[in-house]
Inverse folding.
């Protein structure tokens, strides 16, 4: 069985952590992206590559929200990054 991993494109983005947030620059379009503390909480996991369920579990644990709420929020965040072509989504075995 394979699992879809969500991973940031390292060559497409430059970023810095500023307190509880992430400020990122899309190197191809020169557009800035501000990531709130919820997104910042899963940013390192996305650098390494992680399944959406793992990202949602981290959000659920850190912010004391239900897994359903966390999954909805993480999927929306992943969808937004995907529309900006900032993710590599691959299958892990």
């Amino acid at each position: 069985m394979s699992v879809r991993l969500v991973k940031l494109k390292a060559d497409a983005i430059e970023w810095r952590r500023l307190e509880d947030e992430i400020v990122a620059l899309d190197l191809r379009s020169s557009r800035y992206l501000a990531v709130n503390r919820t997104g910042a909480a899963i940013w390192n996991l996305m650098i390494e590559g992680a399944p959406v369920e793992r990202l949602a579990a981290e959000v659920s644990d850190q912010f004391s929200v239900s897994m359903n709420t966390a999954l909805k929020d993480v999927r929306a965040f992943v969808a937004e990054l995907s529309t900006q072509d900032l993710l590599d989504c691959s299958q892990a075995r």
About this structure: Residues 3-86 form one domain. The CA atoms of residues 9 and 87 lie 5 Å apart. The chain has one domain: 3-86.
